[in-house]
Design a protein that fits this description.
Strand content: 15-25%
Helix content: 25-40%
GO molecular function: protein-glutamine gamma-glutamyltransferase activity
Strand order of the largest sheet: 9-8-7-6-10
Oligomer: single chain
Shape: globular
Radius of gyration: 17 Å
Number of strands: 10
InterPro entries: Gln_gamma-glutamylTfrase_bac
Organism: bioreactor metagenome
Keywords: Acyltransferase, Sporulation, Transferase
Largest sheet: 5 strands, antiparallel
Protein name: Protein-glutamine gamma-glutamyltransferase
């Protein structure tokens, strides 16, 4: 349910920007790396011992997020981190830079354990009546080969309910992503990879309230 037509329009706008950011990240040159081999641009980020990226003191968060898309070859990380980067970039495309910096003065990119409160809901999978472009979905691989744990699943952004963006995989339909995961299972597997029920998505209503207040609507 929406409180106003403007709230609906904002959700559509943000969903469109999420899809756009996912495609941009796919073309950025950022590589897939497991956390122990992750890399980032030290001009903007400090790489943690766990393999995450923490925003450096004195650096604008808007500049640091934008750098991932302009200097993607300097970055490498896992698929969960990529999902979070997509959501930050979508918000940066909507909010003025100064507002984005105030909203996110500190950023720790890694996984759902370190995600900012305002994006917390993207890390929680909930069953929804409908799944829409901009949702985060998850392809699970229950019989993954233990020697390649990075193939235990794939976080993916729904681009148009047919194609999905998964970091390190690319943009494919669900059948192709499932096939790629199935190629990394144990010998004599009993279960196929599959697209899980549920989605993570931003709290569109909360972000609309923030946007409305900032823009004086």
């Amino acid at each position: 349910m929406y409180d106003s037509a403007d709230q609906l329009k904002f959700e559509i706008l943000l969903r469109n920007e999420i899809v756009k950011a996912a495609k941009e990240l796919n073309n950025s040159g950022m590589s897939f790396e497991i956390f122990r081999e992750s890399k980032c641009n030290p001009k903007f980020w400090i790489r943690t011992n766990e393999g995450g990226f923490k925003l450096k003191e004195g650096v604008r968060s808007s500049d640091a997020i934008a750098d991932i898309f302009t200097n993607g070859s300097l970055y490498g990380t896992e698929c969960a981190t990529a999902m979070i980067i997509v959501y930050y970039k979508a918000l940066l495309n909507i909010f003025p830079k100064e507002a984005f910096d105030r909203l996110f003065p500190k950023i720790h990119l890694m996984n759902w354990h370190y995600i900012d409160r305002l994006l917390k809901s993207t890390g929680s999978m909930r069953k929804e009546k409908d799944y829409l472009p901009g949702d985060r979905r998850y392809f699970a691989n229950p019989d993954v080969n233990p020697t390649t744990p990075e193939w235990q699943g794939e976080n993916a952004i729904d681009l148009n309910s047919v194609l999905y963006y998964g970091h390190g995989v690319g943009i494919f339909n669900s059948e192709t992503i499932i096939k790629l995961l199935n190629e990394n299972r144990i010998e004599n597997p009993k279960r196929s990879a599959y697209l899980m029920e549920g989605a993570g998505r931003p709290d569109f209503k909360e972000f609309y309230g923030i946007y409305r207040n900032l823009m004086g609507l």
